UniProtKB/TrEMBL annotation:
Residues 47-155 form the Rieske domain. Keywords: 2Fe-2S, Iron, Iron-sulfur, Metal-binding, Oxidoreductase. Its cofactor is Fe cation. InterPro entries: Rieske_2Fe-2S, Rieske_2Fe-2S_sf, Ring_hydroxy_dOase_asu_C_dom, Rng_hydr_dOase-A. CDD domains: RHO_alpha_C_CMO-like, Rieske_RO_Alpha_N. One of its GO terms (molecular function) is iron ion binding. This is SRPBCC family protein. It comes from the Bacteria. The lineage of its organism: Bacteria, Pseudomonadati, Acidobacteriota, Terriglobia, Terriglobales. It comes from Telmatobacter sp. DSM 110680. PANTHER family: CHOLINE MONOOXYGENASE, CHLOROPLASTIC.
Length: 368
């Protein structure tokens, strides 16, 4: 990597304790070299959530996704096994699955008809008679590591990455009593924001700091003074007792229970849990100043009789998201100002953001 990248990374002190720490510097949200390093060292080497188990529940079901610039296909095999492959034909590199999802008996490249089994083995290479030293067994689809936790599917492009359960630490044990596996998908919504993906993660991890100012409705049902932040090695939990309030009726009706739980798993996956309600947020970079946030909404009851109530809950989430979009895009504009270099962090509120920045810096240091 260039010397310029090293100079940019040296602007941040990942060893500073929270009470002395600054945020990562503004150029990290703006620089193309940082973006390339993130693709390789953050998204290319960690476990990344890519989908749900129900998307590939039956034999031959598949979906496609792109991580760190790499096209992937996730598929359920004839033997019931879940597999991931680079979505790249071994002949001339076309995508073997060229639609977002579907059900197939095999994966056939639309370019020259090379056909692969659901286990990735090459089954057919038309008109290849006479090709010398061609090893059919060595020309199957290239696999990627894929595993599940709860109803979520994760992949890593790094063959040497620690297994997912090691990366999750005690998170599965902490989430297990919440029984999120009983919740069922209701709807998926996708948003595109004019900001760097890290701006969105920062906003999520500020310990509720912005909630009283930006999210009046949500704030009405959270006990902000009792809002807590707990960091583990690779995740952060923000949590708050719920309170009864009729100040904002739609929030009171859709955000209930004793406590709200907001889990963030490095680098880009969030799980938000209320009583009988969960949504997950997956944040993916689309460029230095653009990102996509994918929301999946889950409910304990997804019957037709519960549709109206569930739709109202999603609408409440939309209102919160709209408020976050506006402020995140404002931050992105401000990061380009000569008036800003880096900011300080609240010891009371922004420990999760501090964890994110230190993990990010640790990954990026491998690029120089």
């Amino acid at each position: 990597m260039s010397r310029d990248l090293k100079e940019l990374l040296d602007l941040y002190n990942e060893n500073a304790p929270l009470e002395e720490a600054f945020t990562i510097p503004a150029p990290w949200y703006l620089d193309a070299d940082v973006e390339l390093a993130e693709s390789a060292q953050v998204f290319g080497r960690n476990w990344i959530a890519v989908g749900r188990v129900d998307q590939v529940a039956a034999e031959g079901q598949f979906f496609t996704v792109e991580i760190a610039g790499e096209p992937l296909v996730i598929v359920r095999g004839a033997d019931g096994g879940l597999r991931g492959f680079y979505n790249v034909c071994r002949h001339h590199a076309a995508a073997v699955a060229n639609v977002p999802c579907g059900t197939v008996q095999h994966l056939r490249c639309p370019y020259h008809g090379w056909t692969y089994g659901l286990d990735g083995t090459l089954k057919g290479a038309p008109e290849f008679a006479g090709v010398c030293n061609f090893d059919r067994a060595a020309n199957g689809l290239v696999p990627v590591r894929v595993v599940t936790w709860e109803q979520f599917i994760f992949v890593t492009l790094d063959a040497d990455a620690p297994d997912l359960m090691t990366s999750l630490g005690d998170l599965p044990a902490r989430v297990s009593p919440l029984e999120i596996g009983k919740l069922r998908l209701f709807e998926r919504k996708t948003y595109t924001l004019a900001c760097n993906w890290k701006v969105y993660v920062d906003n999520y991890l500020d310990g509720g700091y912005h909630v009283p100012h930006l999210h009046k409705g949500l704030n009405s049902v959270l006990d902000y003074k009792e809002y807590t932040i707990e960091n583990s090695a690779r995740y952060s939990l923000q949590s708050s007792p719920m309170v009864s309030s009729q100040e904002h009726e739609s929030f009171a009706a859709t955000r209930t229970g004793d406590r709200a739980y907001y889990y963030w798993l490095y680098p880009n996956f969030m799980i938000n849990i209320y009583e009988g309600v969960m949504d997950t947020n997956l944040v993916l970079p689309l460029g230095v100043d653009r990102c996509m946030v994918q929301f999946d909404f889950y409910f304990a009851d997804v019957s037709e009789g519960a549709r109206a109530a569930n739709a109202e809950s999603v609408a409440v989430s939309d209102r919160i998201q709209d408020e976050d979009v506006d402020i995140c895009e404002s931050v992105q504009r401000g990061l380009r100002s000569r008036a800003y270099g880096a900011g300080r962090l609240s010891v009371r509120r922004e420990g999760g953001e501090h964890l994110f920045h230190r993990l990010l810096a640790s990954d990026l240091c491998r690029a120089v």
